[in-house]
Amino acid sequence: MRVLVSTRLLDEGFSELKNHFEVIFPDKDVFSKEEVIQLLPGCDAFLPTFQFKVDKEVIDAAKGSVKIIANFGVGYNNIDVKYATKCGIVVTNTPDPVVEPTAEQAFALMLAAARRVAECDRKLRISNGLKWGVLENLGQTLYGKTLGIIGMGRIGQALARRAIACGMNIVYHNRTRLTPELETTYQTRRLKLEELLTISDVVSLHTPLTDETWHLIDSDSLKLMKPTAIIINTARGPVIDESALADALQNHRIASAGLDVYEDEPNITPALLKLDNVVLAPHSGTATVDTRNEMSRFASQNIIRYFEGRNDITRVN
């Protein structure tokens, strides 16, 4: 049996999969869509990364051969899940390995934006790029501030643990309320979105991308935030209206932002690239050697267990 992997990934994470299947990797960084369509009819499973679009055309090529699409990533908006389901193809994701590293990235962006780390680093490399002084390059402290978490799932809770250790206060917005035990653990309370945006010093997004969360943060939402507020996005780019965010940052309606995801990756709204009050990362929330290998092992386990007839897979359809 054969597994097609869309992208050249680290070998270490695929050792067990190779014991069960013939695993086909691209010779270069990534297979083109045309190459995938050509290869899929001879494969039993497909393992795309979150950057590879698995649309109707790709799924049509997989029909009749591929039984499972094991996505390399927790988000699966890169896959037409509804059409895959219609075609009888199982779709899985890799939620467990991404929790802690994504929370780390959100916290890193929060600190960098609050303390102007990236801005000062850039300017120090330029002759006379910044002025030294007691009242120069002032940022914000996070201690004692309120962190509003939109999407208090596993990643949101992992961020909350880090924020509590830094002396922050936590509020959250979720479709469903946490258990009283968890609310006590995080010393938090559930708020409506509008109230959370109004009172938070930092807002961090941890929601999946759905029809309901597309442009959840738009120009009206940004107007509710404090002029000193910081917004962090390690979820999915289109959760924020990027043009509206650029406008709010340009006009100092909010203080700063830290972004790991974008509406039209790898393209970034040009105005954001010119601003000092935004920290940009290249969708690297899970970009560590440890995490990449663990994601590969997790996706591999989904494939192995599926063909063993087991139900303990992270199926999303």
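The record above closes out task 2.4. Task 2.5 opens with a second protein, given below.
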Amino acid sequence: MPQNKPIPKIKGEFLLGSLRQMKANPLQALCAWQRDYGDLASFRLATRHFYLISHPKLVEQALIKQSDIFVKMYDPKKPTGLGLVLGQGLVTSQGELWQRQRRLMQPVFQRSNLASLHSQIVAAGNNLLARWRLLGDGAQVNLADEMMQLTLEVITQTMFSTSVLDKIEHIAPALDTALRYAAKSVMNPLRIPLSIPTQANREFNAASALLDDVIYGIIEQRRAQTAKHNDLLDMLLNASDDNGNLMSDKQIRDEVATIFSAGHETTANLLSWTLYLLARHPDVLAKLRQELDALLQGKVPTAEDLQQLLYTRAVLNESMRFRPPVGIMMRKIIKDTEIDGYSLKQGRLAMFSIYNIHHHPDFWPQPERFDPERFLSDENRRFSFMPFGTGERICIGNHFALMESQLLLSMIIQHFDLQLLNTDEAEIEMAVTLKPKGGVPVKLTARSRHR
């Protein structure tokens, strides 16, 4: 019988393991560990043991061939990570509950249904452009904040037929606080229980209460209405199981929180990074403008136009490769198993580094170069490119996110020039998602209508 290959162990401190490195800069740590130890390595954060997986073949063997062993880690009695914010929503739930909810929500996100959401995305985009015009040439804005507001408006209008713009200055920081706390809870098993009123716990509880108020408010407002909206919220409120039981308010809250959070945060990051990268690569921006100006001549793209904007899509794909909105995926290993001749132990956590895979030199020549041309070929990149995850748990909103990003990017690029106010390279900050640290401060200049 072949010997199992030994898994390299990342050296850490006696009690804390690699916790100090991970807390200081998680992304930097994960990149360094792949470079120094290879595509599969084990590490410890205090009492918690992890495997770091950074190769497409290992992803396929774990998440496709053994998806019943590498499972989501939600524990209703002791939630950590995103479970603290999203409860048992679609991103965190598992088993029968997940299958039922996925089946229920799938129709909203099918390509055939997305065309009906086009006009709402365009309306949100037009509101942004009008607001920028009012600010006047030379106005300075932070793109990260602007894109967060824009995508929050899109998700609440399209999925819940409502707007939260009047509460935006409270919602954005509350979401940020909640998601940062969630990320730290996975990385640090030594955290103090939520019931003890430390400053971090108080801030998280206050942020959670605010988000719950907003989400339950959206649900109650809809229940009080008689008109049909035929949106995701209607679907959730009217769905019943085989016995005719409706979903509990808590389950509806968890699903709304999931779509609300996951559905705008990642797209906002994608747009922020893309606009930042275009500002740093004038040759790519010129080529993108050439495609947009030739095909659209200043108008908003229709659903048919989007199919023809091949370079625009290549720019977004390369942006998601270079700065993936979600940097890692986590799974719990529920029984001893093997991938590629390596033995993995039950109870440990598998951390799949999307960032490392997207920068793997075996699959991406010159991985640190931003080059949309890579995506103009028909190369099969099934597991080497996975910004939306992979397998049965692939993001339900991937087609929606791409349509939204393509539409909004083409609207912004046609109408505005964006000049970076800081010429240094933006630092990457990894909480649950990958963000530009401090955002992206830019100066706005409206483009002339008569090109």
